């Protein structure tokens, strides 16, 4: 699988490229945001399976680059950065990043996250013709088109945000264990994904302007509380 590594530090890029190559990835290295965007232009080569995006780039802020990437392609994007605060994570995910890894990281963790984002979400595979739309009060979830609206107003969600919402909405009131959500949405059992789950839940609450829609069940997981019709 082809992987686009966007990293301005040649030493970091060389070391990481060697690790990724050992795991079967064909790495293309871009040193700036503009190089990354040029590399993503349609060409005869196979498309990239994933983009690893550093935020500290010399020509553009990584957040800006992520927004431009998301307008061009649905290729999964993993932000790799030293910015560890929750606000930065939420901002990155809102821009369309599929995951957010904080430096310094364990390479095994990074490889696990790469494999998690390139797998197709199980919600798509489990969908049947009868399960085309979910309605919860003013919330409307269209499964085939992956569109969400609240009281008729469209809400833009990332792929993982949609998968998470669709999973919880299929069984309102039922508590989903954290491990179950991570398994079904991220397709992995790796424990470190838990922090990413928390960030996605916070982002969903903010985007839908319904903080009470997803309830945290302390020590267990989350459940969707159906709003009054």
TrEMBL record:
Residues 2-118 form the Response regulatory domain. Gene3D superfamilies: 3.40.50.2300, 6.10.250.690, Winged helix-like DNA-binding domain superfamily/Winged helix DNA-binding domain. Residues 131-226 bind DNA. The keyword Transcription regulation applies. Pfam families: Response_reg (PF00072), Trans_reg_C (PF00486). Keywords: DNA-binding, Phosphoprotein, Transcription, Transcription regulation, Two-component regulatory system. Residues 131-226 form the OmpR/PhoB-type domain. Transmembrane segments: none annotated. GO terms for molecular function: phosphorelay response regulator activity; transcription cis-regulatory region binding. Coiled coil: none annotated. It comes from the Bacteria. GO terms for biological process: regulation of DNA-templated transcription. The modification 4-aspartylphosphate is found at residue 54. GO terms for cellular component: cytosol; protein-DNA complex. This is Sensory transduction protein RegX3. It comes from Streptomyces aurantiacus JA 4570.
């Amino acid at each position: 699988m082809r992987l686009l590594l966007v990293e301005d530090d040649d030493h970091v890029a060389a070391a990481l490229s060697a690790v990724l190559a050992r795991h079967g990835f064909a790495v293309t290295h871009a040193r700036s945001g503009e190089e990354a965007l040029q590399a993503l232009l349609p060409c005869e080569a196979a498309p990239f399976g994933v983009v690893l995006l550093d935020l500290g780039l010399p020509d553009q802020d990584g957040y800006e680059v992520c927004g431009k990437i998301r307008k061009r392609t649905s290729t999964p994007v993993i932000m790799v950065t030293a910015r560890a605060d929750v606000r930065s994570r939420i901002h990155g995910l809102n821009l369309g990043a599929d995951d957010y890894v904080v430096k310094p990281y364990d390479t095994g963790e990074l490889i696990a996250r790469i494999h998690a984002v390139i797998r197709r979400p199980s919600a798509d595979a489990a969908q049947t013709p009868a399960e085309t739309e979910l309605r919860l009060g003013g919330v409307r979830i269209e499964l085939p088109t992956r569109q969400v609206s609240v009281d008729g107003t469209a809400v833009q969600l990332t792929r993982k945000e949609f998968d998470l919402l669709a999973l919880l909405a299929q069984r309102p009131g039922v508590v989903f264990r954290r491990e179950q959500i991570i398994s079904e949405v991220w397709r992995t059992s790796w424990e470190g994904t838990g922090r990413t789950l928390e960030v996605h839940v916070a982002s969903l609450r903010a985007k839908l302007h319904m903080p009470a829609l997803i309830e945290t069940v302390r020590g267990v997981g989350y459940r969707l509380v159906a709003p009054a019709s």
